Hints:
Elements lengths: L4 E6 L4 H12 L4 E8 L7 E4 L2 E7 L10 E4 L3 H13 L3 E4 L30 E3 L3 H17 L1 E10 L6 H15 L31 H14 L5 E8 L6 E9 L5 H9 L4 E3 L11 H4 L5 E8 L6 E8 L3 H18 L2
Helix pairs in contact: 1-8, 3-5, 3-8
Amino acid sequence: MSRKFNVAVVGATGAVGNEMLKVLAERKFPIGELRLLASERSAGTFLDFGDDGFQVHKLTQDSFSGIDIALFSAGGDRSKEFCPAAAAAGAVCVDNSSAWRMDPEVPLVVPEVNPQDIALYKRKGIIANPNCSTIQMVVALKPLHDAAHITRIVVSTYQAVSGTGQKAIDELRIQVGELLNGRPAASKVYPHQIAFNCLPHIDSFLANGYTKEEMKMVNETRKILGDDRIRVTATTVRVPVFYGHSEAVNIETEKKLTADQARELLSTAPGVLVVDDPAKGLYPLPIDAAGQDLTYVGRIREDESIANGLNLWVVADNLRKGAATNAVQIAEVLVEKYL
Length: 339
């Protein structure tokens, strides 16, 4: 592609913003001007992009003149405040926060699953990036849903601390060091110690007993797959892993799918890598998925408690496919088909 596009990265100094820069460079996105935006606290710092350093500028309502695509990862409040301004200036916003995901006028997109919905960006000039745990699950389930129609999903997640941000990464690292040296570990980011522990608590609790994270998986899955009839229930757990979310997924389908049929479907599915030979100790691991863009699927087996059921183990890098890479893939479809 000979045409270049002016790109803004909002929240460029954060964990996902940094990953967005890496992915843009790795995938050789056709960038004309690159504009890095963040809070006043980060303004004036420099970040590397390829072989060059770019200064970070303060995010304002006037930051988007001449920008074609704005990749947002600065939190929901800033997205609500600044995405409309960016869209009004002519930019298409790809937003990584939860601010716009359930807006009926904003498409919620995983390119391997529902790329056709990107065309709906024209309603508000915004495309929503789904929750990290939802993204990897629907990438794995889309080919199975197309083949046999999923009627129910039961998912338990094991989510890395990087999903909370750099402070959580630091907290796990420091806690491990303190505990291994016989000292008490302070908990500031999480309500309890995360080192050598599991917390069944991601985001705040709602009146129905679920957390916001769990209900994101319920509602976003239905929207992305375009089927409100799918019954979804989720339990989301934070685990002492730095990078890479893991999920135990159980599905029930209208038509029977054997484990072998599921493996065959997934082996040719876009964005999926099947790693499924337990006899040889081969199954998806977060340490293998870290730094990668694929969704790893293994432990594929039939649920013997119901007629049409399957169990799967799904792993992906939450900062890449779960956030930055998915956003850049959306931008790639935008420049290929719509801009």
